[in-house]
Amino acid sequence: MDSPEVTFTLAYLVFAVCFVFTPNEFHAAGLTVQNLLSGWLGSEDAAFVPFHLRRTAATLLCHSLLPLGYYVGMCLAASEKRFHSPAWRLFLLLAVTLPSVACILIYYWSRGRWARHPLARTLALYALPQSGWQAVASSINTEFRRIDKFATGAPGARVIVTDVWVMKVTTYRVHVAQQQDVHLTVTESRQHELSPDSNLPVQLLTIRVASANPAVQAFDIRLNSTEYGELCEKLRAPIRRAAHVVIHQSLGDLFLETFASLVEVNPAYSVPSSQELEACIGCMQTRASVKLVKTCQEAAAGECQQCYCRPMWCLTCMGKWFASRQDPLRPDTWLASRVPCPTCRARFCILDVCTVR
Ligand SMILES: [Zn+2]
Ligand SMILES: [Zn+2]
Ligand SMILES: [Zn+2]
């Protein structure tokens, strides 16, 4: 294999993937379709719907040109090679077909002042008989400019909720549904563990937005569980929740789950048969279920100390106590930190929390 070809192929592949999926570095460098074509696209704030009509079309066209760019680049990078093999001809055909199809599609969309664009068609479903989709578009434009809208999400999957609309902006599409006729259901929650290398424990919620109008396509929005409360405030109807989904709205809630899963793998502590477990003195609801035993290091080593208290707390209360002694702004330090025993003040770490048997 010739090395310039391989080098170019790898470099182009990385560029193409980054250009399509735009990681943060590409956003910071301004290497996105909307940044490169900002002059033609106009401003999202000034005119939300026209901006996205043009942006989706431009993105589709730019991305469809990537294979052709590769072909041209390859011809320049390895000019002494001849590109007459059937595989290369097939590739060239594909590279030319893709942008051609994109152009035809965009031309079709743009006819009649973009009336055939999928976004315009969705808006037309909400239009009054006497006015067209443009009236709906201008009401969305106005609402998008308001500062009290709810907006979140990565650039490739933004979620925007205004007083009237629920919208999701993706690379090639803009999903729109009117608040008054949608049902929102939390269908999934995924927890990302709090670990020393990730700064924040996060729970990601997937919410299905389904319109009562069958012509409006249902779509999923994703957001952080800590933003859930803010979303609920912006919505007029309650969000339903699938039976198996548990939502942790605060950092403390998220932490408790991690705390419990870590304590589970610590060695258990067997209580002497003469000793009876009392109710947890924190909540008085359940029986005490944890004992602090220094197991992280040798008895004399390290900062942790041996606690001689009998089991007095349940796992949840101990977790809450542990979380309450942490710096809320530095969740990355939580797991590694030491806190005093709530009763005797002996310092302990998570490794020293043992469930009683
Ligand atoms: Zn308790
Ligand atoms: Zn103690
Ligand atoms: Zn310890």
UniProtKB/TrEMBL annotation:
GO CC terms in record: endoplasmic reticulum; membrane
Subcellular location, record wording: Membrane
Chief location category: membrane
The keyword Hydrolase appears for this protein: no
Family label: Belongs to the TMEM129 family.
Alphabetized InterPro entries for the sequence: TM129
Lipid bilayer topology: Multi-pass membrane protein
TM regions (residue ranges): 57-78, 90-109
Protein name: Transmembrane protein 129, E3 ubiquitin ligase
Keyword Transmembrane helix assigned: yes
Gene designation per UniProt: TMEM129
One biological process term in Gene Ontology: ubiquitin-dependent protein catabolic process
Origin: domain of life: Eukaryota
Keywords carried by this UniProt record: Membrane, Transmembrane, Transmembrane helix
GO molecular function: ubiquitin protein ligase activity
PANTHER family: E3 UBIQUITIN-PROTEIN LIGASE TM129 (PTHR31322:SF2)
